Amino acid sequence: MKTLVIISHPEIETSMVQNFLKASAAPLEDITWHHLDAIDTFDVVAEQTLLRHHERIIFQFPLYWYAAPASLKAWLDTVLTGQFAFNGRQPLAGKTLGIVVSTGTAAKHFQAGGSEQVTLSEILRPYELVARKLGMVYLPPLTIHQLGYWQETDKQRLVIDYQRYLTQAQFNFDQKLAWFETMLIKKAAEVTSPEAQQRITLLREQLANKHAALTDLNWQVQLIREEEGEG
After folding, report:
1. Nearest to 5 by CA among 18, 15, 14
2. Which helix (H) or strand (E) holds 145?
3. Cys bridge to 134: 54, 92, 111, 169, which one at CB 3.0-4.6 A?
4. pLDDT value at residue 180
């Protein structure tokens, strides 16, 4: 799967979040990093070709006054022309659209009773509507609140979450385990020390055991449901 990450950020060079995400995506294959603010004039045909050649489209931006920076709005207005997007065949239909949004405000403020008095899902609703209009599958947004205050272990989890968000076809438990298995196989091919190989083998065994245990649990739950239904 090819992923196009469309970044809207006027000061990307000094952005801790954007540089962190770019470094997180560096080991991945088939990722196109596309910074809108570095483009003076959008080449509409070239931009539309990029969209055609990628299966997953990501809008990535900081939240400025409850919206994306101006470059994303300009790109949407310029590139998603009616002739391209709505003329019968819908060239983006079936592709996935994801949102990676960062804020300088804590997550607790974007919820019922929070100081912002609005959720991020409500703020990002226009992009969900765009996805629906284009026949795309809308992914649950990946939100990053106040990254500068995160502990190192939380940042490490974000690296994994971000890599999965860019590359994983589905986000159920089986797909998550399959993604980790793929990453471990790739890592095993890169390391040379016997100790590292042993640790990777152990991790793969642990993943397999957890998967088997969960499958057995799901089977037992299904049996209980069937028995209750018969009763």
Report:
1. 18
2. strand 142-145
3. 92
4. 57
